[in-house]
Design a protein that fits this description.
Layout: H1 10-29, H2 35-51, E1 56-62, E2 65-68, E3 71-72, H3 80-92, E4 95-101, H4 109-122, H5 128-138, E5 144-148, H6 156-161, H7 163-188, H8 197-212, H9 215-218, H10 230-247, H11 252-263, H12 274-277, H13 285-292, H14 294-304, H15 309-321, H16 342-357, H17 369-378, H18 386-396, E6 404-407, E7 412-417, E8 428-434, E9 440-447, E10 462-466, H19 476-479
Antiparallel strand pairs: 1-2, 1-4, 2-3, 4-5, 6-7, 6-10, 7-8, 8-9
Bound molecules: fe (ii) ion (2 copies).
One fe (ii) ion is lined by residues 233, 237, 265-266, 351.
């Protein structure tokens, strides 16, 4: 390589990452001889040549940021999706990064493609990194060094650094709840045509914040307080739906529409008497009918609200659909065979998750967040869209924030952050200790990913999970407090 340092711009680095990720995706779908694959290899090789300085080119993730040769790349509107995709791609493969050695500039197209394919397939292996190393050696590809994750994905410090974003999310939660409460109240009082402009504004702000950091919003349903169900449920469903929408790259405008639709999905319940909604015993036929009509009534009430015909058109049908299942069973009983809308499918997932994990006085069973996800995953393809369920589990983590667990060290711990790695089973938890007054106090934050340096075994294992309400614990006191 040249002796003098080469000038390399950010846009060259971005192009390199773009070419890397595009090739990984193209190679996944197309055969070796497909034009897109051949062009993809050429572009990737060219961008390696233009970016490589001295004797190697390293791209890696550190604290959820992408670096090329120690240059931190800026997250912005254009790069965000690409960077998120690459971070997820590496996370799934237990990789912190990849170092390409100078010999890559002499590598054949066949070798580059073999590397990309192995890298891709490694994501499906139980031990991706070990598998990838062996496979690269078997193919005699010696110009790649894999950078293993050395740092913990999240430690106590980075958890604390999120305090500000958590506080902002908390405010968003309060404003959103207040604005939908206000709309519902005005409808109840029969105050003519009720406007939703304020709620739209709140949702627009929410979308801006959510685009920047969706993790904190996926954990937000833990803000729920036991006895405050009616509107917290709507806010939870709204935020969870928007998190799903965000992950499937819905446009900003669609995210706002989805948010509005999800926030008001149960609006029709305001017409159901309190005693029926909260009845502990079995409902009689007319009560059941009343309940089953609420989704239709949500759409009917929304029709009366003061909003643009365009937004109304987009949100009426999904509201009506939110209790229909993927196979069109559920209610209201539908005779048509038209598949559910995307919004309808998203809201039904968020709605069901929040319902299953909500502890309410009149409900007998409540599932811990991880069990609720398991329950829903078992019904994927029948009750729920199978792809959206995977997206949802990916967002929430195997043990979502708010899951309470007993560890093999006999410690009681509450999940406070679920890593962004797909289907991660080792979240960040906060150990809880029972005080003299029988209430639980927050102790240290620990990472269940931690291994004993001598034995290589994990320091702690999960024995059992519970719903926080089983032990009278309000997660909000431990999670959203600094
Ligand atoms: Fe509902
Ligand atoms: Fe609901």
């Amino acid at each position: 390589m040249t002796d003098a340092p080469k000038y390399r711009s950010y846009s060259q680095f971005e192009e390199f990452l773009h070419n890397f990720y595009s090739l990984s995706q193209t190679a996944r779908i197309h055969s070796d001889t497909h034009t897109l694959v051949i062009e993809g290899i050429e572009k990737f090789s060219e961008s390696i040549n233009s970016c490589m300085d001295n004797d190697s080119l390293t791209f890696k993730i550190s604290n959820d940021q992408l670096y090329v040769d120690d240059e931190k790349l800026a997250y912005n509107r254009t790069t965000k999706n690409l960077f998120d995709n690459i971070i997820r791609f590496f996370d799934t493969r237990s990789l912190e990064g990849v170092r390409l050695l100078e010999a890559v500039t002499q590598a054949s197209a066949r070798e580059i493609l073999a590397f990309m394919r192995l890298l891709d397939i490694s994501g499906q292996q139980p031990e991706p990194l070990a598998w990838l190393k062996d496979s690269l050696a078997a193919e005699n590809i010696a110009w790649v060094e894999l950078v293993k994750k050395t740092e913990r994905p999240q430690d106590e410090e980075s958890y604390k650094s999120k305090a500000e974003r958590r506080e902002r999310a908390r405010k968003d939660y309060t404003y959103t709840k207040a604005s939908i409460e206000e709309v519902a109240q005005k409808i109840k009082e029969g105050k003519g045509e009720v406007g939703v402009r304020k709620t739209v504004r709140v949702v627009q702000d929410l979308v801006t914040n959510l685009i920047e950091d969706d993790e904190v919003y996926s954990a937000i349903s833990t803000l729920r307080v036991f006895d405050d169900y009616t509107y917290t449920h709507s806010v939870n469903v709204g935020m969870l739906s928007m998190c799903i929408g965000r992950r499937i790259n819905l446009s900003r405008r669609n995210l706002v529409n989805l948010g509005m639709c999800a926030l008001f999905h149960d609006l029709g319940k305001i017409e159901i008497p309190y005693e029926v909604l909260h009845k502990k015993d079995k409902l009689n036929e007319s009560e059941l009918q009343m309940i089953e009509e609420h989704s239709l009534n949500s759409s009917r009430l929304m029709l009366k609200l003061k909003a643009s015909p365009d937004s109304k058109a987009r949100i009426l049908v999904p509201m009506f659909e939110h209790h229909l299942k993927y196979d069109l069973s559920g209610y209201p009983h539908a005779d048509w065979k038209r598949p559910l809308t995307l919004f309808g499918k998203i809201i039904s997932i968020a709605d069901q998750y929040d319902t299953l994990t909500s502890s309410r006085a009149y409900r007998k069973s409540v599932l811990s967040p991880d069990r609720a996800l398991g329950y829903m995953f078992d019904r994927a393809g029948r009750d729920y869209d199978p792809i959206l369920i995977k997206v949802f589990i990916n967002i929430m983590g195997v043990y979502p924030v708010g899951t309470l667990m007993r560890l093999d060290t006999d410690e009681l711990a509450l999940v406070v952050s679920s890593p962004s790695r797909e289907f991660s089973k080792r979240p960040l938890v906060c150990v809880l200790e029972k005080g003299s007054d029988d209430s639980y106090k927050k102790k240290e934050i620990i990472n269940l990913d931690e291994r004993d340096p001598e034995t290589g075994n994990y320091v702690r294992e999960i024995i059992e999970t519970y719903h926080p309400s089983d032990l009278g614990i309000q997660p909000v006191q431990h999670i959203f407090s600094a």
